[in-house]
Amino acid sequence: MSNPSLLILPGDGIGPEVMAEVRKIIGWFDARRGLKFDVSEDLVGGAAYDVHGTPLTDETMAKAQEADAVLLGAVGGPKYDSLDFSVKPERGLLRLRKEMDLYANLRPAQCFDALADFSSLKKDIVAGLDIMIVRELTSGIYFGEPRGIIKEGNERVGINTQRYTESEIARVARSAFELARKRGNKVCSMEKANVMESGILWRDVVQEVHDAEYPDVELSHMYADAGAMQLVRAPKQFDVIVTDNLFGDLLSDAAAMLTGSLGMLPSASLGAPMANGRPKALYEPVHGSAPDIAGQGKANPCACILSFAMALRYSFDQGEEATRLERAVEMVLADGVRTADLMQAGDTAPASTSDMGDAVIAALDASL
Ligand code: NAD
Ligand code: IPM
Ligand code: MN
């Protein structure tokens, strides 16, 4: 039998820098745990535009559809800001999500003990935090029609449409309830049912799926603005949060700061099961290409490393090895290894991106 396939798309900015550390980790699991992957690498985002004039070629799209899992670094950067909207780096990522139909974006926000002091919130508010944001990823205002910039009389009008079908809401709700059953058994659904029809439908459908299929899971509903407030006031009240594409984008960046740094937050984007029973899947850090620190060896590779841990768990049935990798990251942080984003006043010189990767490898060695 052939090895499971892993398509790596490093992308732009710090994407290739953090991905280089993940390659070391993949090498370690191969050499020390006998976990073999058929790894291939390709271009996405600005890197693909520079070579092909498009942020994602049809060939790369086809490879992603075939792969057992895709691992992506980050896309975008100031160099591409003035490009036409249709070929911007971000369009490559959005095409991958849409065409692979990766409707459930899992964004865990876990506060490692060693970083509890580092959050911008007080330690007792974040210590022990472990929440999972499930963001709908293939619909809503990101993809709704009509969209565009049109001329109305003498002025331009920018149009985007929030649109959700019942089945789109129901399937992501199921993902959230399934996850909750394996965690704290609680789901909070967030929308703006007070002002948006799509929010009214969202609330109704989540409630219906709950009542018919998951009555054992505790369900609550919150307006997304109040949810944002509660997320920073008392985040530990939440277990799983399920929300739409745009609210999920905002809430997950806010949640990232509860954990100390955007550089710590991984994500998994999952679709329907393939013929082999595994979900279609793309794993990526929540952060972007961080142009302000790109090329300086300063990036924190943990979010990307932890995204690979999610791949081990959700795509490759390697839950124990995923936990081994997560513990290794935790151990490194507990030992005080810090990239620049995790430094506080008075700290000594920061670890570089590759120092951090090497420290994780050393912690993996120590786990054997
Ligand atoms: P960003 O996440 O790239 O950076 C925000 C801030 O966090 C910056 O100060 C950056 O230095 C810091 N940061 C992010 N990741 C870090 C890491 N691993 N280690 C240390 N510090 C880190 O967001 P932005 O600046 O708003 O966006 C920059 C570009 O990235 C834009 O083109 C945007 O569209 C794109 N973007 C891409 C993705 C993605 O590929 N999934 C996600 C978000 C933004
Ligand atoms: C994210 C990013 C993307 C999004 C962009 C780069 C398209 O912000 O993954 O959170 O808005 O979904
Ligand atoms: Mn975002």
UniProtKB/TrEMBL annotation:
It catalyses: (2R,3S)-3-isopropylmalate + NAD(+) = 4-methyl-2-oxopentanoate + CO2 + NADH. Mg(2+) binds at residues 225, 249, 253. SMART domains: Iso_dh (SM01329). Substrate binds at residues 97, 107, 135, 225. One of its GO terms (biological process) is L-leucine biosynthetic process. The record marks 142, 192 as: Important for catalysis. GO terms for molecular function: 3-isopropylmalate dehydrogenase activity; magnesium ion binding; NAD binding. Pathway: Amino-acid biosynthesis; L-leucine biosynthesis; L-leucine from 3-methyl-2-oxobutanoate: step 3/4. NAD(+) binds at residues 77-90, 288-300. Keywords: Amino-acid biosynthesis, Branched-chain amino acid biosynthesis, Cytoplasm, Leucine biosynthesis, Magnesium, Manganese, Metal-binding, NAD, Oxidoreductase. Binds 1 Mg(2+) or Mn(2+) ion per subunit. Its cofactor is Mn(2+); Mg(2+). It is found in: Cytoplasm. GO terms for cellular component: cytosol. Residues 5-360 form the Isopropylmalate dehydrogenase-like domain. Its main location: cytoplasm. Its EC number is 1.1.1.85. Homodimer. Belongs to the isocitrate and isopropylmalate dehydrogenases family. LeuB type 1 subfamily. NCBIfam families: leuB. Catalyzes the oxidation of 3-carboxy-2-hydroxy-4-methylpentanoate (3-isopropylmalate) to 3-carboxy-4-methyl-2-oxopentanoate. The product decarboxylates to 4-methyl-2 oxopentanoate. This is 3-isopropylmalate dehydrogenase. It comes from Actibacterium naphthalenivorans.
